[in-house]
Design goal:
mainly alpha; 10 helices; 0% strand; disordered C terminus
Amino acid sequence: MFLSAILFGLLGSFHCVGMCGPIAFMLPIDRQNKTKGFLQILSYHFGRLFSYSLIGLLFGFLGKGFYFFGFQQQLSIIVGISMILMVIFPRFFSKINFSKGINKVIFKVKNALGKELKKKRNDTFFTIGFLNGFLPCGLVYMAVFGALATTNAFSGSLYMFLFGLGTIPLMTSVVYLGNFTKGTLRKKIQKAIPVVVVFIGVLFVLRGLGLGIPYVSPAPILEVINANEICH
């Protein structure tokens, strides 16, 4: 499942270029000093990873509650089916305002982000990345579903961290080279993203079914314990 988070981030970063690319283009990095510029970009990414990890920590903690009460498998199936349905019926889900009720917070985040883009302090890049991580994004929402389906806060945080890690190569290339993903290549990868989302959704469903397939659909812990008791 953690490998799926990295894959999700790698392919999803082509979507991120369209959504967060303008922010990356506007980063006030020092292009004269390559070492300093690289560290500034690294700080920006670390800020994003930190915010993603915090989000994952929260939803992983919620997922732990489901696990504690024995609903982890059902939750994993629901998350997987939700991912698949979002791909099959995108228009229906696009009408749902996931950010409803927190629009004021998002407005404040955007304002703070705009102010930070005008600064060039040492902590500016980390702050920009941190705020960037809280902006509404469909792919981040799906990654959050994955964090919710984990068994504890640490796993949820790690899932989101790895998702963010997967977005770094392309987002870094965009800062240095500009938006080079236009044309046929980008269209092909954009078409591949829904396929990857469905694939990850299927993995979550299989995990929830507990078919006893190692690494893919492991047997429920209670069944394993009962089997061991019978053997003894």
